[in-house]
Amino acid sequence: MLLTGCDADHTVDWDFQVTAGRRAGEWSRIPTPSNWECHGFGSYHYGGDLVPAEKGNYRHRFTPPTSWAGRRIFLVFEAAMTDADVRVNGVSAGPVHQGGFYRFRYDVTALLRLGEPNLLEATVSKESADNSVNDAERRGDFWNFGGLFRPVSLEAYPSARIDRVAVDARADGTFAAHVTLAGVPAAARLTAQLRRLDGSAVGGAFSVAVASGATDATLTTTASQPELWTAETPNLHRVELTLASAAGEPWHSVAERFGFRTIEVRTGDGVYVNGKRIVLKGANRHTFWPTSGRASSPRLARLDIGLMKDMNMNAVRMSHYPPDAFFLDLCDELGLYVLDELTGWQRRYDEGVGAPLVKALVERDVNHPSILFWDNGNEGGWNAALDDDFGRYDPQGRAVLHPWTTFSGVDTSHYQTYSSTASKVAGGTIFMPTEFLHGLYDGGAGAGLDDYWKLMGGSQRSAGGFIWALVDESVVRDDRGGALDTNGSRAPDGILGPYREKEGSFFTIKDIWSPVQLANSAYYESVFPASFDKTVKLVNRYDFTNLRRCRFTWQLLAFPVPGAGTGHQVLAQGQAEAPDVVPGATGALALGLPVDWTSADALQLSVTDPTGRNITAWTWRIRKAPDYAALLVRPATTGSVTAAETAGEVTLIAGATRITISKAGGRLSGVRLGSSPVSLANGPAPAGGAATLTGFSHFRDGTGWVAQADYSGDLASVRWRLDANGWLRLEYRYRATGDHDHLGVNFDYPEANVRGLTWLGDGPYRVYKNRLRGVQPDVWRKPYNDTATGASGYQYPEFKGYHARTCWAVLETTEGAVTVVAAEEGLFLRLFTPKVGPDPQNAVVTYPAGGISFLDGIAPIGNKFHGVAALGPESRPNAAAGDYHRTVYFRFDA
């Protein structure tokens, strides 16, 4: 009998009063389950200083049915933050429960009046009277909340009952159920039947005799070749158990869901599931939603799991506390490996208060096949005296980890540099960092992952790792007009925004962690390989799945020209026969393209897994940047350009277009379209270094007019040519050697005038030198925004930053449209300098001067704990190659 709602989406109002903070002392109503801060009560509080005076007083009246007479009745709290003092009809239900994330219950049989109204009262203290509970839970690096944030219910059992079941089901089919009994009045029998979820029986029934007064029993059997559980094949079973009298009268029946699977930590080797070595690809997840705090629902849990699987993750770490039971149910059903964690962030529970919490954690979660490990706290917040407690309640004997150090043969050390990661994966200990590549703002997470995963994804002793973190944890503050608060730089760490907005790293991770990879690294370029023979070589990075179970579809695409819309047209499509490639092997996929496939603009290949989920797609441009330039920029056949000269400038005039070049610097100093200015100016200026003008000239060139500037220094030459049809061609040459953050040229343009961008290039997200994967060539459009990733704005994709492999772009401004066309491949278009949140630490990236840049080399970004110098090869500066040449066309339209 639920007394609250079943989750944050389905609530029941209770009487409520908070003792401090907002609305203190006022009796009103509050939805349950919930955190009271999210409903206008108390104070918002991030881990650190305590607020011991803040308590919530709850009252609720309920009527249990008279049909419960003769049963044992328990009052069950799925969790309460943090100390809970419970009374029924004015009488204490039992000792104050301490610990905010754990199920607890009271036997209230003697306190209830069946068939009549009863009064439940609970005083929930936001902080604990036990300082070690506060150390472990309330002084952590995460938001603190108060309240009954998970359901409260009554459970009525027969006096002779099955109290708990702990299952141990192995990959070889052996099965054991360790059953806790209560109230057995006489000799009895416990019978079990294994079933698939469709109800079909697995083998026959099996049973064991139970003596009078027995408190435990164990049933065993062996299933013949059962379907096994893995994250790739989440096959579940059910065991039905019945406690009956010796004469066969059933007293109590229960059913438990489980999976047949075996977990092994092979010391100095790896983590194995069902005899196969696995690699975990995961994120750290807090139970969190901006408007409900830690109160959640199956809807929100399914959303998060779906997004993780969309990124090709196969694992999740429950940081830093056990989640809702329904989250683990969904991990079992949908297929995610889980690290389930006892709370403790750099501080720990004392043994006396911690031991019952370990018991509560394991007894609730023991039968979830998704759980591979138990985490005893985090980053020093472990109590070694509790390590052996986990095994007391877990017949599977899962390994216990101490995240941040080496324990149980697994090195989980956090935030290693690229070089220390290389050392660890080459060492003799299993390496599985439970936190790495800290995703503060837009740094980390996907940035640097390609290099790290080349080390971690293929090493024998690497068991994978967990990125910090899944979401930006931003609380909606009603005391700040609904503003989102991440407590400065402490909580904007997500791959996803607070409402699960997809940031750029989402797609990078999806690409890098796809279980189907390209065998030739050159094929990760968006330009179509010249050696393509209508087959693609693939690597199977699954642990258990043959690629023949996947679906491969191709499409030939046509891209619109500027002004003709966005996206693409599908010219032809088909399905390729999936190759027979076992995990770890390489094979060839023959696409079977039509003979005229080269007339398309691009080829796209998509892969879906056996459940129909898209796991990856690659798009290769068949048409190159010079092809688009030739298509879009047609030379004038009639007309001519005139020039007007002053002492300091020369103005080239073609119809309504007027281009003014500075004679002192050779740079663009003004553009006018009729009588209206276009504020592009002060370029091309070298993105790095300096240049001194050594010569300037201008002259007629057929239907056009040329202005030529020559330099000494880092810029060699600039040649402007305005054609009679209004197209302006810029050719520039520069020289660079050594290491550089940026290679290319800059212009000025007032950001305030910009309204949007449409472009053909790799998008829709911006890139960094160490986060180039995950973007795809297409015709994209995005409106201007000033988002500071994870801190303000929350509009994605972000407008500003580096954009990869741009063929053409149309900048939409208050002054008209500025069209840019690249004549060569590989242009990075930089648009302005992005805003960043407070205290970005090492999660920073450099940008050149000016507002708009045309670049051959761009900068990498760091993460919270590491600057780019500590990361891998992709995070190093650009090694300049000497002389560079690029041609860019401009057109200005009203």
UniProtKB/TrEMBL annotation:
- Looking at the record, the residues that make up the Glycoside hydrolase family 2 immunoglobulin-like beta-sandwich domain are 162-261
Its EC top class is hydrolase
Question: What are the UniProt keywords, alphabetically?
Answer: Glycosidase, Hydrolase
Q: Does the keyword Transcription regulation apply?
A: no
Q: Which residues form the Glycosyl hydrolases family 2 sugar binding domain?
A: 53-157
Can you cite a GO biological process for this protein?
Answer: lactose catabolic process
Spans through the membrane: none
GO cellular component, as recorded: beta-galactosidase complex
Substrates-to-products reaction catalysed? Hydrolysis of terminal non-reducing beta-D-galactose residues in beta-D-galactosides
Supply the EC number(s): 3.2.1.23
Q: Where is the Glycoside hydrolase family 2 catalytic domain?
A: 265-384
GO: which molecular function terms? beta-galactosidase activity; carbohydrate binding
Q: Which InterPro entries match?
A: Bact_Beta-galactosidase (IPR050347), Beta-gal/glucu_dom_sf (IPR036156), Gal_mutarotase_sf_dom (IPR011013), Galactose-bd-like_sf (IPR008979), GH (IPR017853), GH-type_carb-bd (IPR014718), Glyco_hydro_2 (IPR006101), Glyco_hydro_2_cat (IPR006103)
Please state which protein family the record places this protein in.
Answer: Belongs to the glycosyl hydrolase 2 family.
Indicate what this protein is called per its UniProt record: beta-galactosidase
